[in-house]
User: What shape does this take?
Amino acid sequence: MGSRIGKGGTDEYALRCYFISTTRSMVSAMSTTSLKLPDELKARLRSVAEARHTSAHAFMVESLQNAVVAAEQQLAFLADAETAYEQMCESGEGYEAGDVHRYIQARARGESLERPQPKPWRE
Assistant: This one.
């Protein structure tokens, strides 16, 4: 059997075994999905993955994970906005944008400022 030591002086075999043994316990069941990519995108993907010292597969999984998290956060933000709008319509009160902007800017500068108070917007 040949040497298990890689060109960079690291024990690549041990690293591979460690990665496989630690990630198997963290990953639940996986299914296979076929993804058709334009040739140009596939080449760019391979290039980026190589530069990051990872596989194209791992890069795609990470990218999809990040995209799903971002989409979930956006959906939660929109749901919160819808809830706030419904509460505003029910109460008939809201915050003046100028008051909110001044408050946020003061807080960003580290200043203490009294929170804006809601005001009736219906007549």
About this structure: The chain has four helices and two strands. The beta strands are 93-94, 119-120. The longest helix spans residues 56-91.
